[in-house]
Amino acid sequence: MTEGQKSLPKWILIVSGLFALLELMVSLSLCFSPQSVLETVDLNAKGVDYLIYMWATRQFALGFIFGFATFKKSIPMLTIAYIFFLVMFVGDFFIGISQKENSLIISALVMCIISSALIFAINKRK
Q1: First-to-last CA distance in the chain?
Q2: Mean pLDDT for all residues in the chain
Q3: Number of domains present in the structure of the chain
Q4: Taking the model in full, what pTM does it have?
């Protein structure tokens, strides 16, 4: 394979960088202003802060992974990151169904389609 075949298009790097920033911003929002993200949750209930910090850590880790993979322009790392993204949103889809929350179902479906398309776009160059 030549170097031209291994390089990623700039649009994939831009989208991946935006996802990295989005995940990092969600993480910071969860840590510093959880009420802005979790409107229907009683933030004073026992153990909720623990769950919020666990969720924030997951979002931070995903943002860091996306950022690092984008910076390195690594096809395998971006593929794994988008597979994780896809699995995460499949889970959100089923949570949306169980909670009967249409907005979560729709956003999860959209993100599953975007993740799948990016996995395909990244790996069609191999």
Answers
A1: 8
A2: 89
A3: 2
A4: 0.83
